[in-house]
TrEMBL record:
It comes from Rhynchospora pubera. It is found in: Plastid, Chloroplast stroma. The keyword Ribosomal protein does not apply. This is Arogenate dehydratase. Pfam families: PDT (PF00800). Residues 115-292 form the Prephenate dehydratase domain.
Length: 420
């Protein structure tokens, strides 16, 4: 398991192919027991989560031996551009280097501040989200989502803050899949207004640009604006927005712009060619906070609960029954997402006359607006369990109730009041 994509000494990306190895699913059924009336103390709650997680762990173990493609990697030659042709190299200040898989030895770093892992380099929106969730935290950059999960599991970090959905681009599927494969608990959420800028080296004009680099979500969030700015540029995916800015700066690329935050422009010495280039001024990304221990659910403030379940191929009726279990108890759903069932992606149905039908199998993720301390939520889940072959509670946590303001800066670190 090796992933050297960042030089330890120069803070510059080298981009050998990352080889993160993640788990596969086994597909065995698991059961979950919901006592009628959950105890209110931490011990009860933790033992309940342990039951849930031991069941889900049996179904979908996390191990590091099977393969996955990992996050994007890049070679120094991109779309025929020789990135070694460095012209005006802007001096980039020494910033914390993102954690790599190779850094993940379980030696805890002790300190008084909460250590919060995020994916990306300083200046990424995820760093701002970490600051919003935990205002005085020590934010730890990680080069992949997977590494942020492992940093918490191995006690290198106390929390991870990871994006799960964006108002324009939709769900960040990789993190849904990783939530299932790891055993961390969702302990909170923050919603971050995302305000993108077009950044280039000082003196570069828009007309000189042939390429724009950024995180795929950021490229998608600015698609129409790029066209309306008259930019006829190739879009190039990068691991994170600030990483793209750093790459443009350290390689002196005068034909390439990055889409990133104004903080990234300051950090990497780039100029803002255009400000607020997201296609919708209300562009917002929702992040979840992850921890090794769950929070004790409460009823004195708005809570959300996130679950994931699978069923044994009885068509749409199961989904209907699950939704009804919430609807009849007046519990609002705030999100529903489906992902391929990794251990059983396809179900074959033989029909003597018509041949073999191939149905896709899914994992369903649901967020609902209730605390697991509420009997109506416990009863709904007890009912859901009857219809499903696998059920796991990912977390029951305080909702982000920050007053909505689409214009507030994504890089300001105001408290959401939802820290756990
Ligand atoms: O690249 C970054 O700066 C990130 O923090 C990642 C990310 C994402 O994954 O969606 C976060 C917020 C924005 O939606 C764009 C990119």
């Amino acid at each position: 398991m090796e992933a050297t994509i960042q030089s330890r000494f120069t803070n510059q990306k080298l981009y050998k192919v990352p080889t993160v190895r993640c788990s596969a699913t086994t597909g065995k059924a698991a059961s979950v027991f919901f006592p009628n009336g959950l105890g209110s103390n931490r011990a009860d709650w933790q033992s309940m989560c342990a039951i849930i997680n031991s069941n889900s762990a049996g179904l979908i173990p996390y191990n590091s031996s099977s393969s996955s493609s990992g996050d994007n990697a890049k070679a120094p030659m991109i779309n025929g551009h020789d990135t070694s042709a460095t012209l005006d190299i802007v001096p980039v200040p020494k910033l914390p280097r993102p954690l790599s898989i190779s850094d993940l030895s379980p030696a805890p770093m002790h300190g008084s501040e909460l250590r919060v892992a995020y994916q990306g380099v300083p200046g990424a929106y995820s760093e701002a989200a970490a600051g919003k969730a935990y205002p005085k935290c020590d934010a730890i950059p990680c080069d992949q989502f997977e590494v942020a999960f492992q940093a918490v599991e191995l006690w290198i970090a106390d929390r991870a803050v990871l994006p799960v959905e964006n108002s324009l681009g939709g769900s960040i599927h990789r993190n849904y899949d990783l939530l299932l494969r790891h055993r961390l608990h969702i302990v909170g959420e923050v919603q971050l207004p995302v305000h993108h800028c077009l950044l280039a080296l000082p003196g570069v004009r828009k007309e000189c640009l042939t390429r724009v680099m950024s995180h795929p979500q950021a490229l998608a969030q600015c698609e129409h604006t790029l066209t309306s700015l008259g930019l006829n540029v190739a879009r190039e995916a990068f691991d994170d927005t600030a990483g793209a800015a750093e790459y443009v700066a350290t390689n002196g690329l005068r034909d390439t712009a990055a889409i990133a935050s104004s903080r990234a422009a300051e950090l990497y010495g780039l100029e803002v060619l255009a400000d607020g280039i997201q296609d919708d001024s209300g562009n917002v990304t929702r992040f979840v906070m992850l921890a090794r221990e769950p929070v004790v659910p409460r009823t004195d403030r708005p809570f959300k609960t996130s679950i994931v379940f699978a069923h044994n191929g009885e068509g749409t009726s199961v989904l209907f029954k699950v939704l009804a279990a919430f609807a009849f108890r007046d519990i609002s759903l705030t999100k529903i997402e489906s992902r391929p069932h990794r251990s059983q992606p396809i179900r074959l149905v033989d029909d003597a006359d018509a041949g073999t039908a191939k149905h896709f199998e899914y994992m369903f993720y649901i967020d609902f607006q209730a605390s697991l301390a509420e009997p109506r939520a416990q009863n709904a889940l007890a009912e859901v369990q009857e219809y499903t072959s696998f059920l796991r509670v990912l977390g029951s946590y305080p909702m982000d109730m920050t007053p909505w303001s689409s214009s507030s800066s994504s890089t300001s670190a105001s408290s959401s009041g939802s820290s756990s």
